[in-house]
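== Sequence and structure of one protein ==
=== Format: two labelled lines per protein ===
==== Data for this protein ====
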Amino acid sequence: MEAFVSAQDIQAGIAEITFFHPAHNSLPSDLLKALADTITATGERDDIKVIILKSHGNRTFCAGASFNELIAIDDFDTGKQFFMGFANVINACRKCPKIIIGRVQGKAVGGGVGLAAAVDYCLATKFASIKLSELAVGIGPFVVGPAVKRKVGLAAFSQMAMNPADFQSPSWAKDKGLYAEVFESAEELDQAVLALAEQTNGYNPEAAAEIKRICWEGTEHWDQLLEERAEISGRLVLSEYTKETLKRFAER
């Protein structure tokens, strides 16, 4: 199956956005652009009140940045533009006037944790461990950092960012505020996601938009902030340390 981003109406007022990549739902730049554009376009529809964001399949939710694309980056502009892909997705979620519910069925790594943090309400399974792996390959969770820190707090973000080798459990993620609830199976997760979407669909859309605006207060500068963070990552991905580390990972 080829990589894709798709949007479909699953019932009146509820849209579902799904992304897929055969490499553990990793996100190359073309998928990041498609995802940001789809979130923005769906959020602009008057007939949609709530969005479900999910990945395809029953295993990894999102493995983060495309490893092959990271290795291929050989100049600053290309590096910055790649990491701007994650910035654009986060900002699309932030600016979307509709409530976005995240469905996290499996592990989330790096940018995948950023996606889980960028939605407004996130539900997961007991298999949805999380890890910010960026420091281990010579960069850092700079672009996703503001979204993750906003959800879990500075102490928990620091713990993940400075311990890139270890996964944190779904229960840990729930305790820190990333997940609202954790379920035993994908089937139970899907039931809960749909029930929440149907409930949200019944709310006054103007009131829901105002609640979302209030929840995102203090992030109005993120267009500039995330671009600055993308520049940091775009510079570090060119460093000798990072290039050598990425090479070693590729040879495994």
In short: DSSP finds eleven helices and eight strands in the chain.
